[in-house]
Amino acid sequence: MPRPDSAQASAIVEKDVVIVGAGFAGLYLLYKLRAMGLSIVALEAGDDVGGTWYWNRYPGARCDVPSLQYSFSFSSELQQDWTWSEKYAAQPEILSYIQHVADRFDLRGLIRFETRVESAHFDDAANLWTVTTDTGQTYRARYCIMATGSLSAARLPDIEGIDGFEGRMLHTGRWPHDGVDFTGRRVGVIGTGSSAVQAIPKIAEQADRVVVFQRTPNFTVPARNGVLPDEAVAEWKQNYDERRAQARATRSAMLYDYGDRSALDVPEDERRAEMERRWAAGGTNFLYAFNDIMRDERSNAIVADFIREKIAATVKDPETVRKLTPRDYPVGAKRICVDTDYYDTFNRPNVYLADLRSEPIERITANAVVTAADTYEIDDLVLATGFDAMTGALSAIDIRGIEGERLREKWAAGPRTYLGLMTHGYPNLFIVNGPGSPSVLSNMVMSVEQNVDWIVDCIEAVGFDADARIDPVKDAEDNWVQHVNDVAAPTLYGSAASWYMGANVPGKPRVFMPYVGGWSNYVAKVRDVAAKGYEGFSLRGPAAD
Q: pTM, whole model, 2 decimals?
């Protein structure tokens, strides 16, 4: 039976389940687990809910999944009552939505804000997880669930002299909540990934001068964002259940116009017309024009050349075109960006692009970025240097399993999970959207719901007896890791030094981390595992009978 809350003199609080994080995943876990009558708590480092949308407040921040799809489906009333204003929701609106969810379902009382988890250790004898925090409060629970997010561990660059910079230094993943005024300022931006692609046009509108320090140019497609027409919203709301079912049957849990032919099988004029149509419509739907873009280098090159032509047609200066044009990796192998006026921004007289391949950064001084070719004096330094994706938030916590094995050490050569949900040797520890699941290659909110539903059903089946335990079998984990690698091998994803591969973090092993075998295939697999009595898991307690 679930244990009641109890606080002891030793500052240990007993819970049935401890959740780490209060973004989409943390909130849905609270909603589901509370319905079971359990004693639960979510521990959140920020002072409010929101997860990545709490931290990422940089100018221009918005989702690249259509807002009508980037939302919860578990409550029909929520779907009907909330109305999105734009095709791609901006960060403030997404954060307001998450806050609304927390308030609507009265979840805030179950969250301990401004509480950063420092460690999670498994006590094999007691069959409990002990979770320590920076507040001094310790929790013990039968189950621990990491809802820490795939893109939440902000990465700082290791550049000589960066600590001595005397101006304002800002990371896009840790942006000040009250905003930043760049009027009249000289701004340096390091990085040209998704955050930078969104932020740079907005910063350039204010700043006196912007220098963009680019190591690798990115492919980016126009968002064509705009206000959602009332009739379009009404039509979606009328057919939400049908639309959600259709999305769940796809390979990414998103309703896109999935092309069913190879680019090589389509006549050139028809192929061109299709790409133009998708470019005009905007968004990542462009990348689904043909069914072999991520599997055939020739088809990929056709699409990549189209984007290169668009860059050349937009940017006026030939040298800047050369710098901005990706040449050495397939389109889509790095996460494709979605922008508003990114390429046009480089036509502004106050924006300059520094190519770090030809003039690498040597050091940062009190008021400048020094490259091999020049010294760029700046007032503000914006670090759009991304995240330690998929594993960074977990590695930041001292997680120890059976016999004190450190998760960091187990994953030293790359993350190892079974189904992206658990890792062998860490009983009763669940991961939402972990490595080895579709996660960042899917609609993350739909994946959150699917993962959480599976985890909660599993916890209910395993139970809360003193010896209740579930742990992946090593062979099952090894086989799943091999399967994840096998389905990725024929694709072009491994052809780029991307954060999918951990390549943006020095010293991180180059392993393709998400599951590329398709969302609907993944869901069928995890359902089958559960239906077969949690095949591939070692069980103790009532569930083992």
A: 0.95
